[in-house]
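User: Assemble these into one structure.

Assistant: Restating your components, then the assembled model:
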Amino acid sequence: MLSKKIQAIRGMNDLLPEQSPLWQYFEGKVRDLMRRYGYAEIRTPIVEQTALFARSIGEVTDIVEKEMYTFEDRNGDSLTLRPEGTASCVRAAMEHGLLHNQTQRLWYQGPMFRHERPQKGRYRQFHQVGVETFGFEGPDVDAELILLTARLWQELGLMEHVTLELNSLGSLEARAAYRETLVAYFEEHHALLDEDSRRRLTSNPLRILDSKNPDMAAMLDAAPRLMDHLDAESRDHFAALTAILDDAGIDYVINPRLVRGLDYYSRSVFEWTTTALGSQGTVCAGGRYDGLVEQLGGKPTPAVGFAMGIERLILLLETLELMPAAARPSLDLYVLGMGEAASRAALLLGEELRGALPELRLQVHCGGGSFKSQIKKADKSGARLALLLGEDELAEGRVTLKFLREECDQQSLSREALVSALPELLAD
RNA sequence: GUGGAUGUAGCUCAGUGGUAGAGCCCCGGAUUGUGGCUCCGGUGGUCGUGGGUUCGAUCCCCAUCAUCCACCCCA
């Protein structure tokens, strides 16, 4: 039926009124958390030069090779809808001198775009909250980021439903060296590799370690281990990070196979996962990317960050029914008037009350209709009280207040008494 | 990019080779100015789209599109 009509692009979803309170609840928690930790929000454009992503994420990654929304601008420039937030954030920070002899703690939130097959928890337009820090070398800030996320799970009631996985990829040099060692090892056992793995040999050989193919298990177990090829500094860095987490009482699992897909990561990487969402179980992931700023033309600048997938977290909150009822918006008062004169008066009375009681959540009935239908609308609106303005009330300068949620007689009040009476009636 | 499942009313879904039904929702009435419960009535569908088979297709066949789930990849 909709086939001839225009509909939303595949994998790009409308956020409907029924859903938005949960998003607002989540976004509110995040904003509050960032404020409390002293992180500043940064907003960057959704479109960037294609080269920014190609240079940062890595030319041969799936994201850059086949998942980007890339198009030509009218002047022939190649532009891309951002597939992730870190590159833009680094670009903006550099461009405005935010990294010049100073540290930064930044966060952002917004849509990202990847042309993948949609499935549960994975969409072509999806939303991330990202956090990036610059200028901090030590493991303390790595730990701070993890503690910050842990606190968020705590406050959202998600802590028992997520697991923290940690790994270290070593310095860029150590990682590159290990990569060569690993590729050499896989070349030796080329016959044992499955089709996917042979393809990954050039794209992301570290990822082969993560293969679920049981036929390759023995060969993978015998492969050189990343942890054995870490440079001394990275090993110390990682040890210090886990020590802080131990002291803070944060549980984690060291997963030597945890490899982030983006080329720019080095040293600490981490992932929060859940088993409650089907196959897209990663809910938050990040790591250190000490080389990226320099790679994009800046001075060498240590950096760590992470991103959360908002859709996945919303899905999790939904399936676990973790949104508090109080976070759902509701009306205090529904104002209705019977007849033309009273309807007009109701609209003006509504404005008067909004002026006198700024906290009052009030809606005035529009569209006329019988008294009965208007009261039905009042009930449907979810308001606690209905204010009835009929011809009788209008003539007498009074209003009738009707309780819609509790057993309680309706009251007749003079209009003068209304402003002081309403807060009392709505208390508790 | 690959594989599987599913497309019938706004929503959730029945159904049959002879051009469609329920529940919820919505609207009206029973109650000249009083909701939630009940009862009565009503609006609403070219059965995803395009072909084919057939006297006749919502049903069978093919194609196509969309959605969902999984692989891949990732948040």
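The longest strand of chain A covers residues 104-113.
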